[in-house]
């Protein structure tokens, strides 16, 4: 089955492919499908933003589309950066901002989670949602070279997601969990 992923984020595309390709799904990026757009993420929830992104591509191409909206929720910051994760600071400074805001906060108050909402729109335009989460905590410094975004500061157990292999991350990540839910409705 061919499916368009409504994203311009190469890391998300890679993770969707790592999980879905071995299951026989052919994940095509919106760029490969000829849709050169970036929808405005005006929603206040991950579900709303996933829906906005999927619908923008569906309205253009009228083929099955999936879109992911995801982000980091830090309990000590009342859920921030949340849906603003991609806009929390200039590129290359987002992890640093979270670390700065948690300076002096003890380990047991550094709990956080990644969330991922996926919107799937089928050929007829019907939308369905699945979601996934990954619980962890924010470390005290960046560690690891893998992954992307906030992975170097997000600890699951004693390792950050950036210190894990792609397979290890996908097995426990918010996106991995949401994608496995998605395959139940595809
Ligand atoms: P959006 O879904 O395009 O709004 O972007 C979500 C933002 O959340 C990304 O740009 C990253 O900063 C962050 N994010 C989402 N998923 C992950 C992940 O798996 N690892 C690290 N950061 C993530």
Question: How would you portray this structure in words?
Answer:
- With 186 residues, the chain is an alpha/beta fold.
- The protein has a single domain (2-183), classed as Alpha-Beta Complex (Maf protein), CATH 3.90.950.
- It has helices at residues 10-20, 46-61, 94-101, 166-172, 174-185, and strands at 2-5, 26-29, 65-74, 111-121, 127-138, 154-156, 159-160.
- The protein has a seven-stranded mixed sheet.
- A hairpin with a 5-residue loop joins strand 4 and strand 5.
- The longest helix has 16 residues, at 46-61.
- The chain starts with a strand and ends with a helix.
- The structure holds inosinic acid.
- Inosinic acid is lined by residues 9, 41, 69-72, 85-86, 94, 114, 147-151, 173, 175.
- Inosinic acid binds next to strand 3.
Please give a handful of descriptors for the protein shown.
single chain, 186 residues, alpha/beta, Maf protein, 7 strands, binds inosinic acid
Secondary structure elements and pairings:
Layout: E1 2-5, H1 10-20, E2 26-29, H2 46-61, E3 65-74, H3 94-101, E4 111-121, E5 127-138, E6 154-156, E7 159-160, H4 166-172, H5 174-185
Parallel strand pairs: 1-2, 1-3
Antiparallel strand pairs: 3-4, 4-5, 5-6, 6-7
Helix pairs in contact: 1-5, 4-5
Bound molecules: inosinic acid.
């Amino acid at each position: 089955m061919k499916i368009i992923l409504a994203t311009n984020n190469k890391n998300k595309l890679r993770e969707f492919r790592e999980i879905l390709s071995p299951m026989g799904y052919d994940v095509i990026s919106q760029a490969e499908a000829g849709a050169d757009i970036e929808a405005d993420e005006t929603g206040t929830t991950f579900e709303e933003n996933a829906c906005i992104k999927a619908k923008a591509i569906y309205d253009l191409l009228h083929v099955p589309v999936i879109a992911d909206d995801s982000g980091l929720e830090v309990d000590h910051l009342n859920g921030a950066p949340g849906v603003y994760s991609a806009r929390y600071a200039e590129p290359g400074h987002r992890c640093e901002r979270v670390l700065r805001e948690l300076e002096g906060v003890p380990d047991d108050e550094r709990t956080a989670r990644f969330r991922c909402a996926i919107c799937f729109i089928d050929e007829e335009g019907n939308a369905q949602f699945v979601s996934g989460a990954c619980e962890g905590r924010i470390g005290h410094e960046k560690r690891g070279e893998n992954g992307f975004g906030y992975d170097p500061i997000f600890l699951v157990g004693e390792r950050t997601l950036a210190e894990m292999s792609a397979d290890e991350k996908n097995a426990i990540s918010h996106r991995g969990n949401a994608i496995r839910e998605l395959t139940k409705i595809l």
